[in-house]
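Ticket #4471: structure export looks truncated?
Reporter: QA, pipeline team
Priority: medium

Steps to reproduce: submit the single chain below to the structure queue and open the exported record.
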Amino acid sequence: MVVIGSLDSKQRAELRSRAHKLKPAQHVGKDGVTEAVLSSVDEALNTRDLLKIRFLDNAPGSPREMAEEIAAARDNVQVVQVVGRVAVLYRPLEK
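Actual output as written to the record:
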């Protein structure tokens, strides 16, 4: 995993405000974080820098743990926030 810097509190606040209006683009269910989920997240983050993910009630593990697992499995992805069963991930768009 390659992480280019980490977010400071002002950057995190800006990203949280931008993510507020987003609808979850990815759902993680009973199978948890699978290769299909990781591929889908990767594909979504190629077209946008913020992604909201909903972890369903039957998903194994805590939403925080699964969000961290997704971020660790992909280059330069950071968890912005986890509220309830919804996580926001950030990866800067490549220019």
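Status: closed, not a bug. The export was complete when the record was re-opened. Leaving a note from the reviewer for reference: The radius of gyration is 12 Å.
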